[in-house]
Design a protein that fits this description.
The chain is α/β, with parallel strands linked by helices. The chain has one domain: HAD superfamily/HAD-like (Rossmann fold, 3-Layer(aba) Sandwich), CATH 3.40.50.1000. It is 42% helix and 20% strand.
Length: 215
């Protein structure tokens, strides 16, 4: 059996899904506060002084602190069923199904939030490793359980859940620098749907190519 690891945003989907979900799930009054409080974070990110991971954590802290967890989960389920289908890349869905037809174990590994990614994966019977919103006494703290699921954290969680020695081959699919460690884990690596042998080749694939992937 092989193991197939898929990033979500920009790999399975054609665009970012985190930001549109925040816009939908965060209350308007809280969103107005967030625009003011997070303005230094936004400027820092645009100037390259702050990583997208730190930006996401700051936004989640402001947007979700104290919110009822059940309300955010309902938003996530609705988002998964109504918004996400329009973002899916046909090539990605075909590749997911190809792996399943081969009897491979397929796992979505993403910094996307559990509120919407878990329902999306559950509907398709896909395993999921993602960023999890922390909950206490039925309310969100605005923090993440075990941090943002990106970069090296993706690999740590994969190794914690799966015995990689059991698999004949490991495939990994990603689209950004946040997937570098994920791709390094695999025997066969695909960056923006182009197969590479090492991260050094990524500069040649800065724009999505039209070529398909090989079995």
């Amino acid at each position: 059996m092989n193991l197939a690891l898929f990033d979500f945003d920009g790999t399975i989907t054609s665009s970012d899904t985190w930001t549109p979900f925040m816009r939908m799930a965060v209350r308007p009054s809280r969103m107005r506060v967030a625009v003011v409080v997070l303005s230094p974070v936004i400027v820092g990110y645009r100037l390259g002084l702050l990583t997208s991971s730190k930006g996401r954590r700051a936004a989640a802290r402001v947007g979700f602190y104290g919110e009822p967890a059940e309300v955010i989960r309902r938003h996530g389920q609705r988002y998964a069923s109504t918004a996400l289908p329009g973002t899916l890349q046909p090539q990605a869905m075909e590749r997911l199904e190809w792996h399943r037809s081969q009897g491979d174990e397929v796992v979505v590994v993403s910094a996307s939030l559990d509120a919407y990614l878990i329902p999306w994966c559950a509907e398709r019977r896909l395993a999921c490793i993602c960023t999890t919103l922390e909950e206490r006494a039925g309310r969100l703290t605005g923090r993440y359980v075990d941090g943002d699921c990106t970069g090296a954290e993706k690999v740590r969680r994969i190794r914690a859940r799966y015995d990689l020695s059991r698999y004949r081959a490991i495939y990994a699919y990603g689209d950004s620098g946040e997937d570098r460690e994920l791709l390094s884990l695999a025997h066969r690596k695909f960056y923006r749907w182009q197969e590479i042998t090492s991260w050094d080749e990524v500069t040649a694939f800065e724009h999505p190519g039209a070529a398909g992937v090989r079995p």
